[in-house]
Amino acid sequence: MQTRRTVLTSFALAAAFSNVGSAFAQTYPARPVRIVVPFPAGGTADILARLLGQWLSERLGQPFVIENRPGAAGNIGTEAVARAPADGHTLLLVTASNMTNATLYDKLTFDFTRDIAPVASINRVSLILAVTPSFQAKTVPELIAYANSNPGKVSMASAGNGSPGHVTGELFNMMTGVNMVHVPYRGDAPALTDLLGGQVQVMFGLLPSLIEHVRDGKLRALAVTTAARPEVLPDIHTVNDFVPGFEASTWQGIGAPRNTSAAIVERLNREINVALDDPRFKARLRDLGGAPFPCSPADFGKLIAKETDKWAKVIKFAGIKPS
Q1: How far is it, in rounded angstroms, from Cα 290 to Cα 252?
Q2: What is residue 17's predicted lDDT score, i.e. its pLDDT?
């Protein structure tokens, strides 16, 4: 009898806490919400956060204010959110860089997968494997064959050590056995300038940065790095067509301090997924070179864990160190 009474009491307490959480979520947000963007204003992450912030402000009746906290490849802003109160009023614009930073930086004062709760994914952007028009290889198999026949003679530009283009190129090296030589630059712009000028031969560049040069014939796109072809480049092969299992992309989402109420996380996820199904919102994402990428909090958490492990292997394979 005592055991039965204890079990019933536990169920009652659980139900009471559930009702409290649901009621709290219905009154959330109670004041303005900060979305911390760990990069400078004006970039893709910042534009995306402002687009989402406007949507959430209109839907939830409180301002969602963008706060740029750049520095240390995004680690400063991420740490600020990891240390913030878990009340749903401080959120993080999560990027794929958070997954590589977990291995690149060995003295972080936070653990991303432990200290940031996954809320919702938003956007996914492909990279383009591009070469100069005069380069001998016109397909991915030809690139692999040429690089194998000329080890150490194919140069691969990137925006810097540990950048999306760099780790994607090293994933290509790892999965194909080729040895393209990495040439780091201080940002996408100078890397692209030298690619266009023929000083380097290969670049894994973000689709928005390279697509107009591909359309103008100034660069040759050998493949895209996502598992599926983007709508804007339907005739370009994927790397996966020739290197089974290859997939790489950049993406953004929203995170919150750990222990944030599950009810708040679910409400934010629901509202964000509504945005991702809205034609106008989707059109804005396409303008940024991406595609809607809806996930449940649980599935977003699985993606974060999978990507952290994946890029850790690549970084260790290539011996990548932060710039």
Answers
A1: 10
A2: 46
Span 118-157, pLDDT tens digits? 999 999 999 999 999 999 999 999 999 999 999 999 999 9
What mean pLDDT do residues 6-15 have?
Answer: 50
Q: H helices within 61-139, ranges in order?
A: 75-82, 97-104, 112-115
Are domains 19-125+250-318 and 127-241 of this chain identical in fold?
yes
Question: Hey, what are 4's tokens?
Answer: 């039965």
Cα–Cα distance, 105 to 308 (Å, whole number): 13
Query: Rounded distance, CA 248 to CA 240, Å?
Result: 10
Question: How many residues would you count in the chain?
Answer: 323
Q: Can you give the pLDDT at residue 19?
A: 47
Has residue 1 got a pLDDT over 80? no
Whole-angstrom distance, CA of residue 89 vs CA of residue 213: 41
Cα-based distances in Å from 201 to 85, 132, 172: 48, 6, 15
DSSP 265-288: HHHHHHHHHHHHT-HHHHHHHHHT
Q: What is the pTM of this model?
A: 0.89
Q: Which residues pair with 253 in a beta bridge?
A: 94, 121
Characterize 230-264 residue by residue with b for buried, 16 or more Cβ atoms within 10 angstroms of its Cβ, and e for exposed. Answer: bebbeebbbbbbbbeebbbbbbbbbbbbeebbebb
Q: Which fold has domain 19-125+250-318?
A: D-Maltodextrin-Binding Protein; domain 2 (3.40.190)
d(CA 51, CA 204): 27
CATH of 127-241, one of 3.40.50.300, 3.40.50.670, 3.40.50.150, 3.40.190.10: 3.40.190.10
Q: What is the pLDDT of residues 157-186, one digit of tens each?
A: 999 999 999 999 999 999 999 999 999 999
